[in-house]
Each structure stands twice: as C-alpha cells, then as structure tokens.
C-alpha cells in the first residue's frame, strides 16, 4: 500500500517522475512479499485452494459471472481508455502507461477528474468535518439515523499530528474523499442494521455487499454531496449529470477491469495453473490484455508486481460488483437522473436487505433489495458513454 506521500505525488508529478516512483514502489514492496503469498492456510479449513472458498461464497458460476460483467463493460471502458491522452505518449502496443493514471496501480482513475471532467465545477465543502456532516445528513434523510456522540467525540477525521497513527481516514477536501466518507459511513450503517442477528450471521451477505452499501449511497447522492456540480448549474442539468457519471466512471468503470484482473490472476495461481517462476510475467500479460495498461519500466521474474498491492497480500476480494443493481432498483422511476425521490420507502428497502446479514445467500439478498439477479452497468452509464463516444469521434 503506497504511503500518503507517494499517493499525493502520483496525482501531481510529471510523467518522468511518476515512472521512477512506480519502479521504486514495485522494487521495494513486490519482491519482498513473493515468498509469503501462498495458498496453505485455506487447506486446513477443508478447501483445496482459496478459489474453492470463493466459489462457496459466490456460487459455482461466480467466475463466469465475473467474465460476463467484464465483457459487458468493455465498450464503455474502451471509450474511457481513449478519452484524454495523445497517442504520442503511448507505447506501440497502444497500452496506457500505468503511471499516468493518477493511482499507483492504475486501480482507479478519478484523480484525473479535475482536469478531464466535461464541465467546470465549484466547491462548497471546506473541512473534513463538513464532509462527514454532509454524509450523516444524507444517511439521516434515508431514515437510518445519526452517528452517536461517541462517534463524533472519538473519531479522527483529519491527518493526525506527529507520530500518532490512530487515524482511520486522512481526509482531503476533494470529491474522492467525500465519496470515501460515504463509503466508510456505509460500513457503520451496515454493522448497525444486522446487530440483532445471531453472531454467526453478523457479516455481509457476501464479501461484495459490505463494499456496495456505502458505494451505493455515493451513486444515489451526486447532488447532496456537492462534489460534481458544475459552476452556475443546478443538480437537474445535463452538465451536472454528465459530470457525476464521468467521475463515477473514472472510479468504477475503470476499476472493474482492475478488479477482474486481480481475482482472475489470483484464481489461476490458487489452482496451480501458473508456475512460480512465471508469476510476474502472467501478471504483466493479463494486465496488458484485460486493462490495456502497461508498466513504464521493464519487468522480470525478479519482481512480483501483484504482491506490492496491499489488498492482494491482505487477501481482500476485489470484485465488488452489486451496487449498481441496488441503486437501479431504488431509483427505477428516474432512468437518467437516478435521483432519490422517496427517502422513506428507500430506507425501508435498505433496512430489509441489510438486516439479513449472512442469514440469506447473497443472490437471495440481492434479489430481495433489487428485484433482479442480473448485473446492470451499461444502463447506468449510457448517457456518458454516448457523450464520450461522440467526443472521441470528434478528436479521432
């Protein structure tokens, strides 16, 4: 996991500086973790490998669903891929050099948003506390209640001084961090909803549900969050909504191929399909094939690029893919706008899903809240895809 200093530099440094930083990060982190990243502990739990555990949680067709979701998103991803940078900085293969995307591993692209968004924006929130208060106000408007006095009294919402490392979130006044604030508050709300379940059921319906709760709120609340509002524009304008969808696409549509890469790569290793002396070449090849992204520097089997990513070493699943169904079901009447218009009925639906914890299979929990067992992403992003495709055609 990159340090705050490195993360900040990745947003601002020149292309040449970013190339050097990515080389240093891969050499410092990835090579150290190769020997400890293995598949042994899960065998003691009765599974042949970690992939079997994932299939037990997600169903026997989980990998097929992942592949279908990835392929369904490719048209939008390709438009985003070609939207900003000139061909002159690309290698002959047409891949994007990963270090220019604003994130150390090109996992999300939303740090590009300030200078790539379709329309100018204005800022209305000026402190970390205001961002958390805005998030609380939105949850409260859904009937989910306020944070406790202890939460406000004990939480650390900004960067701590000196050597105090108790901080959970180093909040910056950006649209990205307001979205992170909603996301983290969503975890707490989910905890509160299933607290009355027996101990064995006090968890998300599958590993993706906990992540989807907070992220769905972010999809609901582009206007209340004030993070994508164009200057001299209101929250009902086409410009406002294209900005909102654009930021969401940089974070979510650009993220999904990365998430698919991570888990697809790990499953192949868990199944023993890749010899250890080819782990890094397999990573490089899949990254080029699935993301269209390449390393700015030559890689070898002495490196282990995937091992430099915190969530890989910490064994956190990357495919968090259900938030768009949650959102679509709660805003069915507003296909384009997706604006929350009935907080009371929505809160009832949200509680009904969240309160089940793991007492329902994740597909049943998804159907309970959304009325569907299918994945829908392109419908959500359709207006943006049309806009970007037209711009790409103009600039071709």
TrEMBL record:
Keywords: Disulfide bond, Glycoprotein, Metal-binding, Signal, Zinc
Annotated chloride binding sites: 320
Active site, UniProt feature: 184 (proton acceptor 1), 184 (proton acceptor 2), 311 (proton donor 1), 311 (proton donor 2)
Residues involved in Zn(2+) 2 binding: 183, 187, 211
Residue ranges of the region described as Disordered: 1-32
Bias (Basic and acidic residues) ranges: 8-30
Pfam families, per the entry: Peptidase_M2
Alphabetized InterPro entries for the sequence: Peptidase_M2
An example molecular function term from Gene Ontology annotations: metallopeptidase activity
Amino acids binding Zn(2+) 1: 183, 187, 211
PROSITE patterns the UniProt entry points to: PEPTIDASE_M2
Record has Signal as a keyword: yes
Lineage top rank: taxon: Eukaryota
Cellular component, GO annotation: membrane
Coiled-coil residue windows: none
GO biological process per UniProt: proteolysis
UniProt xrefs under CDD domains: M2_ACE
UniProt record similarity statement: Belongs to the peptidase M2 family.
Protein name: Angiotensin-converting enzyme
Record organism: Macrostomum lignano
Organism phylogeny: Eukaryota, Metazoa, Spiralia, Lophotrochozoa, Platyhelminthes
